[in-house]
C-alpha cells in the first residue's frame, strides 16, 4: 500500500512539474508557478522515488531469500532421495 501511494505521489509531482514548466514557457504564468515551486516538486519527486525504490528492493530481497530457501530445500530433498538409492 505504501509503495502504491509513493508511486502515485511521484507520478503526480512529475506531471505537475511538466505542466507548470510548459505553462512557464508561455507568458501565462499564475502567481504560484515559480521556480521555487517547481524545484519543490522535483525534490518531492526525488524523495518519494527514493523511498519507493527502497521498499521495492526490500521486497525483492525477501523474495530472493524465500526462493533460496526453496532451492536449498529442493536440493536437500534431491540428495536424500539419491542417497536412498
Descriptive notes:
The chain is mainly α and 85 residues long. It has one domain. 87% of the residues lie in helices and 0% in strands. The protein contains two helices and no strands. 6% of the residues are buried. The model has no long low-confidence stretch (mean pLDDT 86).
Terminal-residue CA separation: 49 Å
By DSSP, the count of extended strands is 0
Strand fraction equals: under 5%
Structural class category: mainly alpha
Low-confidence stretches: none
By DSSP (H or I, 4+ residues per run), the number of helices equals 2
Helix and strand run: HH
Biggest sheet architecture: none
Report Rg: 24 Å
Characterize the quaternary organization of these chains.
single chain
Helix amount: over 70%
Shape: rod-shaped
Structural domains: how many: 1
| Overall mean pLDDT | 86
